[in-house]
Amino acid sequence: MKYIGLLIVAVCGGILLSATSDFPDWGYSQSPASTYLSNHYIEKSIEETGVPNLVTSVLADYRSFDTMFETAVIFCAGLVCFLLLRNYNRQKKFFYRHISTGVVLCFKDNCKNLPASKKFEQMDADWIPHDLIIMTVCRILIPFIQIYALYVVAHGDFSPGGGFQGGVIFGSSFILLAISYNLQTAMKKIKEKILGLLSALGVLIYVGIGIICMFLGGNFLDYSQLAKILPVDPIHVRALGMLGVEIGVGIAVMAVMVVIYVNIASEGRHDEGL
Amino acid sequence: MIKTFYPALLVIAPLLAALLCSGFSWIQKKFCYPIVLVGLAISLFSAFKLLMIVLTSGTIQYRMAGWAPPFGIEYRIDLLNAVVLLIVSAIALINLVASHKSVLQDMKEKLGAFYSVYVLFVTGLLGVVATGDLFNLYVLLEITSLTSYALIAMGDPDRSPIASLNYLFIGVIGASFYLLGVGYLYIMTGSLNMINVADILQNLHGSSAVLIGFIFCMLGLWIKMALFPLHIWLPNAYSYTSISVGRLIAPLMTKIMVYVMIRLMLNVFGFNYIFETLELSKVVVWIASIAIIAGGVMALAQKNVKKIFAYIIVSEIGYMVGGAWLGNQTGMTGSILHIINDAVMTFALFLVVGNITFCLKNAHLNNFKGLFSKMPWTMAGLVLAGFSIIGVPPTCGFFSKWYLILGGIEAGAYHFVGALIISSLICAILFFKIFEISFFESSIQNKQQNEHKNHDKIAGITEAPVSMLISLGLTSATLIILGVYSDSIVKNIITPFLTQYKMVI
């Protein structure tokens, strides 16, 4: 069976490779892919969309409908992770540490969680003493990571970046928090409910901008219609529309990153993990 | 060009419903179901409106974001899309109503997320059907696949995750084959709009890269639609999942892939390229004939009714692929008509299974004893759906099979005709086996039950809830309506569509 699989892979790869001889040469400037549509995008994108970053103009304007569904794919991934992994059965054992003395209590057999208090903290079963260096460095680093993420989101239409990248960076700051401290600390900062709402909200911003354009009389996602309600000229308004869309993408991606991490790390129980 | 916003509304309404439903699942769970219901109702309404507009004034082009086609993305609704869209949104809505009770039982805390994924799946399907852009099709295919993996894994906790994992592996390969094919086409043409690609491909008929692109697109779609040697994922995935999901995915997913195949064949590559330049059609018709027989034979070996129906789907895929590749108008007509009919037939079958599993918790053939007296209405629906699958005249299954057989004779593909007839016989055997068990073995079992327990509770009628019965009644009625009006469907929708794309010899 193994060899049959190998054979199929080899045949498919061979067929794909054999057809490359028919391709235009590598870097050939007259190939269809680089002459047919690209010229239009390269020459016209600034005057048509008002965005200096060519990639963003194609991604968030010419083919914004695709990007909306890519965001929906990400939203869907988070939702599916929640649907399949989230486990409401609680763990058998809980450990609580008395902060001032360091005494650890073990609760067994489905007792209720202690209410949050300043004297006790819940801790993981495989707890290792917090490393001061890691915790301090991460605590200093995380705000900068988040500001950088916001910069990347906001500058999507001028320089490389955008909602997807910024969202991932922002999400990773929460993951870093969860790794350097523990999962509960991170979950206290941003609750599951907030994450769920944010991931839907992000895509909703994208779809909402599209629907506003429709209500203003244009086609779906036709940003130029926004000029009717925003006090800027019709070309520049496209850049604003793209910014709004990028912010939506950023929020959705950030929330989904954290949802996926939390659900996988704690096997869906959201109490401890990694 | 006609100014209308329905093409956007069609896809945006369910997407918006999914987002709101997912949001409300954290705030107030009881709003989830109404939101989803309204979203799907809006898309059913817009599908209906689109069909009306297309029938009166021709193809609709809708420019997403306002950019003209090759630069932006275009939704292109013609006669074929409009009908398929109507079927998809109607089935999704009816199934939502029919499965409300069982979803409430199964899902509990995850109700909102489940409904949200459900509508996203429908959004993906509607988008796949409506789009006129090769890459947009892939993006929506991704949404459809991702959600269908999740939905399938929500079934039987022991088996469905593994079935879903297998489906995921194979499905991802299928989708990436399609993407590879589109990539090859993009390198050769520089465009992604279907109509535009078709125009450019006119001058590239001899290119081997286009040929490979075509083959990989087709292979990817065949994997996704479970054409016979590539069908391994289907029976387990469809039979171990929960019935509310099975009813949605089984009738729609494979049929939509057949639709995409036909769309690519007629709109992108063109009739001349496929049937005159390539001459692959004989091989594919042979594969389809084998698929028809193999699906039927494997169905005979099964004991679980869900699995029997899953293998019948494998066999039906053979009908549609074979008909489309016969290379004449009659075969193509049969194939398109069968997409519509088979979606409704399969839906009716799975509604029956749903009613039975709701009452008996298990769809094993042994449990069918005495069902005609216990669940008369459900079994009446099964008889009708069974007749339609076999191809008994007043039901719609007969007419599409008729066109397929005529097309086979016209093309001289007698093995295909033979396979169709043998498969009808196999289906007859299968269904009469089920009828026999559930009709005649009742008395014996009841007698034993009475002797042992001295009360005849089992003989009373224990039907499924009314919402399920109404959905089944509606679907069974559609089977006959589609059959009676199949002539006008062919005359007003399929033939004009095929003439529009020069599929007349």
Largest interface: A-B, 58 and 62 residues
> What is the average of the pLDDT values of chain B?
86
- Give me the side-by-side strand order of the main sheet of chain A: 2-1-3
Order of helices and strands of chain A: HHHHHEEEHHHHH
Question: What's the count of strands of chain B?
Answer: 2
Task: Tag the structure with descriptive keywords.
heterodimer; A: 274 residues; mainly alpha; three-stranded antiparallel beta sheet; 10 helices; globular; B: 505 residues; 3 domains; two-stranded antiparallel ribbon; 22 helices; 2 strands
Give an overview of the whole structure.
The complex is a heterodimer of chains A (274) and B (505). Chain A is mainly alpha-helical and 274 residues long. Chain A has one domain (27-89, 129-265). Helix content of chain A is 61%, strand content 5%. Chain A has a three-stranded antiparallel beta sheet, with no helix packed on it. In chain A, strand 1 and strand 2 form a beta hairpin. In chain A, helix 4 packs across helix 5 (64-85), helix 5 packs antiparallel against helix 9 and helix 5 packs parallel to helix 10 (236-265). The two termini of chain A are 37 Å apart. Chain B has 505 residues and is mainly α. Chain B has three domains: 1-132; 157-279; 283-505, no CATH class. Chain B is 78% helix and 2% strand. Chain B has 22 helices and two strands. Chain B has a two-stranded antiparallel sheet with strand order 1-2. In chain B, helix 1 packs antiparallel against helix 5 (111-130), helix 7 (160-189) packs antiparallel against helix 9 and helix 11 packs parallel to helix 14. The radius of gyration of chain B is 22 Å and the shape is globular. Residues 454-458 of chain B have low confidence and may be disordered. Chains A and B meet through helix 1, helix 2, helix 3, helix 5 and helix 9 of A and helix 1, helix 5, helix 6, helix 7 and helix 9 of B.
